[in-house]
Specification:
Helices cover 50% and strands 16% of the residues. A hairpin with a 2-residue loop joins strand 4 and strand 5. Helix 6 runs antiparallel to helix 7.
């Protein structure tokens, strides 16, 4: 049995080397990944069970450690390996895009912002700072939790903007629930930060709600609501 398992693993690895992951079904890709966390176990059944339990390939990587360990054969080591993948991809994507000279292109800016939320299962608020040429200066997590948190206010944003000598800034927060619509509180805080920093000659480029891998712009809606 051990020899059969070893030969099967070798065939799967050679297939990946020759054809890449696009030639794999979802459960086969998970099976391959688990080879490296569970070197002496048959991971095919675990891969099927993971997808059946969580509903899709992507949801497996959003599961908590405790949820992953509810699958027979998945221990701490394999659960950490699974959780590592989206965070590695987020770090890779952020680093890759940060090499761009300027983010004055809206599509590129959205892609850059979205990458900071890959694999995030909890709501948090991120501040992005740019120089006068819309070149990246820094990105700062203002808080974990809703945007109504005490750390998201004009004074805190202004402190980061001026201490980093930023000319432009972007706010973004995610809605893990999948609801892309900004709340009334989202709109209130957006206008409050935009108005205060505008008076200090610093421009809010946008406030994005991130959900389902998409950017929902908030700033225009916030201005319109309060200008009525």
């Amino acid at each position: 049995m051990e020899k059969i398992n070893k030969e099967h693993r070798q065939r799967v690895k050679k297939r990946f080397e020759k054809f890449g992951l696009d030639s794999f079904h979802d459960h086969e890709a998970l099976e391959l990944l688990l080879f490296f966390g569970l070197p002496y176990k048959n991971t095919n059944g675990m891969a099927h069970e993971l997808i059946n339990k969580f509903g899709s390939f992507s949801r497996v990587f959003s599961a908590s450690k405790e949820e992953l360990k509810s699958i027979s054969g998945i221990g701490d080591h394999a659960a950490i390996l699974i959780q590592l993948i989206p965070q590695l991809f987020r770090k890779y994507s952020m680093d890759l895009l940060s090499e761009e000279k300027s983010f004055d292109d809206r599509e590129l800016l959205c892609e850059y912002v979205i990458n900071h939320f890959i694999g995030q299962t909890k709501e948090h608020v991120q501040l992005f700072l740019f120089d006068s040429g819309m070149r990246r200066i820094d990105s700062i997590m203002l808080c974990e939790g809703t945007i109504t948190n005490v750390n998201v206010n004009p004074e805190t944003v202004a402190e980061h903007v001026f201490s980093n000598r930023a000319s432009y800034f972007v706010l973004a927060h995610n809605h893990p629930s999948g609801n892309a619509e900004p709340s009334f509180e989202d709109l209130c805080i957006t206008r409050s930060v935009w108005k205060a920093l505008s008076e200090l000659n610093r421009e809010m480029v946008e406030h994005f709600v991130i959900t389902g891998g998409k950017c929902m712009p908030v700033l225009a809606k916030a201005k319109e609501l309060f200008d009525k």
